[in-house]
Amino acid sequence: MEIEKLSIGSLEEAKNEIAAVGASPVSVNIMAPKAVFHVVKVHGVSATAANILKQEMLSKGGDAAVHAGVVNCRQRVSDVILMGTLRQYRRVIKSLRIQPVGLPMLAEKLKTLLDPPGGQV
């Protein structure tokens, strides 16, 4: 038995790797978005928006790093590092579209950034 660390950077790579082990075609499409992990940095986010982003990412199984002072709004603006799979981002984007404080615009920017050619986030 040998092991190998995979670095999967796209949905297509994920589909190819999953299909290569003999998974059913239906399973390939279900699992591929779970195999692609992205880290995204968002600059200049209000404390309110940063808190919502953190909550949304956590609720979908991802995470977000924010300035420590954001939680009590002592820090008015923070950069945010989002960490998650394509599947988690898909769910977050859907939620952000109905949030206040500029988050619908961020949802569209995330979709554009993460949308694979020929696919959908």
A few lines on this structure:
Helices cover 47% and strands 18% of the residues. It is an alpha+beta fold. It has a domain of 77 residues: Ribosomal Protein S8, Chain: A, domain 1 (2-Layer Sandwich), CATH 3.30.1370.
General description of the model:
With 121 residues, this protein is an alpha+beta fold. The chain has a domain of 77 residues: Ribosomal Protein S8, Chain: A, domain 1 (2-Layer Sandwich). Helices cover 47% and strands 18% of the residues. It is built from 5 helices and 3 strands, in the order ααβαββαα. A 3-stranded antiparallel β-sheet has the order 1-3-2. Helix 1 packs across helix 2 and helix 4 packs antiparallel against helix 5. The longest helix has 13 residues. The chain is elongated, with a radius of gyration of 16 Å. The N and C termini lie far apart (35 Å).
- Low-pLDDT runs of 5+ residues are none
Strand adjacency order, main sheet: 1-3-2
The general outline is: elongated
Strand content: 15-25%
Mean pLDDT over the full residue set: 94
Number of helices: 5
Q: How would you characterize the largest beta sheet?
A: 3 strands, antiparallel
N/C terminus separation:
35 Å
What series of H and E elements makes up the topology?
HHEHEEHH
Report the CATH architecture of the domain at 38-114.
Answer: 2-Layer Sandwich
Helix content: 40-55%
Overall structural class, as computed from helix and strand content, comes to: alpha+beta
CATH classification, class level of the domain at 38-114: Alpha Beta
In total, the number of strands is 3
**Any idea of the CATH topology of the domain at 38-114?**
Ribosomal Protein S8, Chain: A, domain 1
Could you tell me the radius of gyration in angstroms? 16 Å
